[in-house]
Amino acid sequence: MEPSSPEVVSSDGWMNRILSSRNDIDAVELWIKNTNLEMERYRTILESNAEGTHSAETSFWATAPSSTSPSLAYLTVIPVNYVCELSLVRVLHIIFDVPSSTPHHTVTCGIIGDSKPPLLPIIKQAPPDGLEPYLDKIDAAWPSSERMKEFYKTHSSAELMGKDKADDLYAAIPKLMFVPTTWIGAFLEPIPPKLAYERALWLKKLLPKSSIHSPQIQMIIYWTKCACVKGRGRGNPNSQMTIPWRVMPDDQIARRGAENRLSDMYPRKFPKHTTSKQRRR
Q: Which 3 state secondary structure label does DSSP give 219?
């Protein structure tokens, strides 16, 4: 079950999930190779989309094998309800549809977060309009590095910045941000956007110059930066990159189907006799 107030992990232990040793040249080169392969695969998917749609990308979700994690992962922010709660960046591992009790109707779900205790993955239902609209780029407030530096001198990394009409630029960024699976070890625990930005910069610096300025890599950096800014509305505790993920409905067929999918992915950690209370929020 997802903790109500997840611990914010700021140690360097996440680096070991990416590379066992930054001094191991072979390990770094393999990581770079696999990162570039995933970025190229994603570019191919994007080029296959029908004009004005995300058809190839959403088709990939539908056809990905249930027993393995697909090679598409995304950064996302789940909404919070209270000012005292933290707006945190999480990684979305897999997206899938399950049948519901309503005939000819399916429920789109996502498995989000780590697969190891105590931060177990959670299952969320997609927004009413699905996830495809959140792959469209929006005009997101993008704070300058100077403003970020000044703000976080006097604020904790868990706080979000307000928008500044005089200083901020606006970048075209999707709310659901693709990230190579070679990077997801940096985002398995829920972390504030400021830490997500720092980790993304660290990973970017591992890449050769030929890859650092690729549009896909830059987009990840921009997204984490934009996630540091609050959304509209006075007292809104959410990042502007938040997607309105929902709690799974009280539909036993849909819930069972989603939990079985989680069991298929992690059979040792989530055998199918595990109670639903352990696997959902």
A: helix
Q: How far apart are CA 164 and CA 160, in angstroms?
A: 12
Report if residue 3 sits inside a domain: no
Beta-carbon neighbour count of residue 86 at 10 Å? 18
Tally the domains of the chain.
1
Q: SS3 helix, strand, coil % of the chain, rounded to 5?
A: 35, 20, 45
Question: What was the pLDDT predicted at 151?
Answer: 94
| Count of CB atoms situated within 10 Å of the CB of 245 | 21
Q: Nearest Cα to 75, choosing from 237, 197, 257?
A: 197
Is 5 a domain residue?
no
pTM across the whole model = 0.85
Q: Could you list the mean pLDDT of each consecutive 10-residue stretch along the chain, which spans 281 residues?
A: 35 70 75 91 92 90 60 89 85 86 86 69 90 94 90 94 82 93 89 95 90 89 95 87 91 85 72 50 44
Whole-angstrom Cα distance, residue 13 to residue 242?
26
Cα separation, 247 vs 240, in Å, equals: 20
